[in-house]
Structures are given as structure tokens and as C-alpha cells.
Amino acid sequence: MTFTETVLLALDLLGTFVFAISGVLLAARRNFDITGGLVLGILAGIGGGIIRDILLDRVPNALAHPVYLAPPLVATLLIYFIGQRTFRARIWIIVFDALGMGLFSLTGTAIALEAGSPPAVALLMGALTACGGGLLRDVVANEDPAIFRGTDLYLIPALFGSGLTILAERVGLLGGITSVIIAALAFGFRMLAWKLQWRVPQPMRQWSFRAREGRSRGKRLPSVFRRPD
Question: Taking Cα atoms as reference points, which of 107, 148, 149, 151 lies closest to residue 126?
Fold first, then answer.
């Protein structure tokens, strides 16, 4: 294993760990038990990578290398022993989520490129790895997925990190130090966007049915798939 491959593996495991922490912190905030924390940690830590590897028609890293199952377990035990210190965990959920997003935008893209994917596919696989685990975590925890909220940027920093990885690989500069810099830039982009409340353009007035049918903020629209009255 070359130095660059070793660094990418270390960053991928680190991304699994910090993403798992975000899942376990969310479970603690939602008053789930330790089993729920482990489930959310696993979903956040390895969910995006499993989806990526299935789409790339390769054995998922989490199954081929059982070491990937260790970070969610360690994260669960760590947060469990911290206990009451996780009560005000919102800011730390965002920080660890952004760390995982930055790391996975790099490693997911690098893995896709190594599998022979063209740049456009590698870009999507990197973003999927960076956002997929968080999406699964939020859906299972009954949270509005961060990727769907227009109040801050999430997918764009992931695409930014993935794009930088592709660019570095194309010019022959993708190495250990460059990988760390790319992950740090993607993380910084996400946190700066959150701090300054950067957001994507809001939908036009007639974009959503909610603008016409759900004037009240607390009113929920009926299910699209409900049988007609």
C-alpha cells in the first residue's frame, strides 16, 4: 500500500468516525437509547459509502474490511460515557457532520476515480458519499434532511470538495498532503456557509404548493399518495 493509499484509508476511517459521532449525538439529543445511537452512527458512518460501492458494482468497503464497523462502535461508546455533556449537542452535530462531509467528498471521489469512473460520475459518487449517510441518519431520526433545507449550504460544499479532488487527480497533485487540504477546504466551506447563513436561491412564489395551500407555517399538507376523498 502506497503512502497516498494509506492516507486515503486513514481519512476514510476518520470520516466514518466523525460522521458516526454526528449520528450518535443526534440520537442522544433525541433521547434514543444506546442501540438507537449505534444504528444512527452506523447509518451516518458507512451508509453513503455502501450506496456508492453498490452503484459502482464493487464490494462495499464496510463489508470487505470489517475495520469500518469499529468507528461507529467506538463513537457510540464514547458518547455514551460522556453522558450529560451531550445535552447541548446541536453545534457539535453540525461540526462533526461537516467534518465527515469534507472527508467523504474527498475519499468517495478518489475511490470512484480508482474504480475507473469518468469525472462526472466520480463527482456524483463523491457527493453521494458525503451526503448519503447524513441523509439516511436524518430520515431514520425523523429530522428534516440537511441536504433538502434551503437555509444553509450542504450539497454545494460536498460538490466543491469532490470537484477539487478530480482537479487534483487530473493534474497529478492528488497526494497525502493535498488530500488533507481538500478535505479541510470542503469542511471550511460548509462551516463558513453555516456561520454566515449562506443559502441557495429561494423558490419562486408559485414553485411549491405550500405557498398557495399552506399559508400557516404549522400546517402540514396531506400525503401526495393518500387515496382521494
Answer: 107
Report the alpha-carbon distance of residue 229 to residue 227 in Å, rounded.
6
- Helical H segments across 56-154, by residue range: 61-64, 70-82, 90-114, 119-140
With vertex at residue 183, the alpha carbon angle to CA 34 and CA 18, rounded to the nearest 5 degrees, is 10
Determine the residue type at 201. P
**pLDDT tens, position by position, 52-67:** 999 999 999 888 998 9
Contact in structure between 15 and 104 (CB atoms under 8 Å)? yes
108-149 tens-digit pLDDT? 999 999 999 999 999 999 999 999 999 999 999 988 887 877
Of the candidates 44, 174, 201, 193, the residue with the CA atom closest to the CA atom of residue 113: 174
Distances from the Cα of 129 to the Cα of 43, 52, 54, 124, angstroms: 12, 6, 12, 9
